[in-house]
């Protein structure tokens, strides 16, 4: 016990005085033994078990501080990384992979569309492309630019990856006066949606989609040419901005109109339509839900059809396959 007392009284100038301390002094200080660390040399022999043995453990133990730091030190890395991911690197846009498309944008760049507004249109196009699975065997994208004249900026076969496609949008320049929307639709139907321009053959069952963006009233007729485009399988979406004529938008668009006609008050909010188009263009991956195809299932709009492997033909039930006549397939 004396060794323990000597260790705890390193701050005292002499260690012999506790032996000569009067008993009365110790008795008068007994009520204050709850804080022995302030005067450790006054009562070393009176309370050795409680104060000297307990206090060194609490004061000397650095592990109590270490225990409290283990939890905070493990949290900051994940917290910081998640903050950096949202601030510097926005969450990636969900990409539609349920069906490929032959998609042609038809944009109005007449004088009524101010330069700053035209820039917003190009941002909208870029955002739209972000949500699509672009590729030679996926979605192909073309662009028709129009005013009083029509210019095909690039064809469906021009770009085969998303990066090159997005770099092309900033290079598009507005044209002149006039709003020849009917002529633009006709040009898209006859030149942009052809196999020579990169559109897939009809028997491939790849949806052909045109998205028209305009802020004015057409200066030519749109009813007939739009009907012709729809008749050959082109699905038309019409986006009106500001002063756009609603009747003309409805005359151009496919049915049902509620799903194919959109209107925004300014070009400043046109990017809000991106999510709506993502829902419409992606459709439902019907093959992933349920199908009865014996060999292969192919998504088609919000439905599906069955396909047989090479050397087989589809039976009348459109689901099962039989070996083609004359086929020399080897079976194990």
UniProtKB/TrEMBL annotation:
Low complexity bias (residue ranges): 1-45
Pfam families: VWA (PF00092)
Cellular localisation: Secreted
InterPro entries the UniProt entry points to: ECM_Assembly_Org (IPR050525), EGF (IPR000742), EGF-like_Ca-bd_dom (IPR001881), EGF-type_Asp/Asn_hydroxyl_site (IPR000152), VWF_A (IPR002035), vWFA_dom_sf (IPR036465)
All copies of domain VWFA, residue ranges: 102-277
Single GO cellular component term: extracellular matrix
Region (Disordered): 1-49
Molecular function as annotated in GO: calcium ion binding
Keywords, alphabetical: Disulfide bond, EGF-like domain, Repeat, Secreted, Signal
Protein name: VWFA domain-containing protein
Lineage: Eukaryota, Metazoa, Chordata, Craniata, Vertebrata
């Amino acid at each position: 016990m004396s060794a323990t007392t000597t260790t705890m009284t390193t701050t005292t100038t002499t260690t012999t005085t506790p032996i000569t301390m009067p008993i009365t002094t110790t008795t008068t200080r007994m009520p204050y033994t709850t804080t022995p660390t302030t005067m450790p040399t006054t009562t070393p022999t009176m309370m050795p078990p409680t104060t000297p043995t307990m206090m060194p453990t609490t004061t000397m133990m650095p592990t109590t501080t270490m225990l409290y730091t283990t939890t905070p030190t493990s949290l900051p890395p994940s917290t910081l990384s998640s903050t950096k991911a949202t601030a510097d690197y926005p969450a990636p846009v969900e990409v539609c992979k349920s069906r490929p498309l032959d998609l042609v944008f038809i944009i109005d760049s007449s004088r009524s569309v101010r330069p700053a507004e035209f820039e917003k249109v190009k941002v909208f196009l870029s955002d739209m492309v972000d949500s699509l699975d672009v590729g030679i065997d996926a979605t192909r994208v073309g662009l028709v630019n129009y005013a009083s004249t029509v210019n095909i900026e690039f064809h469906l076969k021009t770009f085969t990856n998303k990066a090159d496609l997005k770099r092309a949008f900033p290079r598009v320049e507005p044209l002149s006066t006039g709003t020849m929307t009917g002529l633009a639709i006709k040009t898209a139907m006859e030149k942009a949606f052809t196999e020579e321009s990169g559109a897939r053959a009809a028997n491939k069952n790849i949806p052909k989609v045109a998205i028209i963006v305009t802020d004015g009233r057409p200066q030519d007729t749109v009813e007939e040419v739009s009907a012709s485009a729809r008749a050959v399988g082109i699905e038309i979406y019409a986006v009106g901005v500001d002063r756009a004529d609603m009747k003309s938008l409805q005359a151009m668009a496919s049915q049902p109109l509620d799903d194919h006609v959109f209107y925004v008050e300014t070009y400043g909010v046109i990017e809000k339509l991106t999510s709506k188009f993502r829902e419409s263009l992606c459709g439902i991956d019907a093959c992933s839900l349920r199908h009865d195809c014996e060999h292969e299932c192919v998504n088609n709009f919000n439905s599906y059809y069955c396909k047989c492997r090479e050397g087989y033909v589809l039976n009348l039930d459109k689901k099962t396959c039989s070996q083609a006549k004359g086929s020399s397939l080897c079976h194990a």
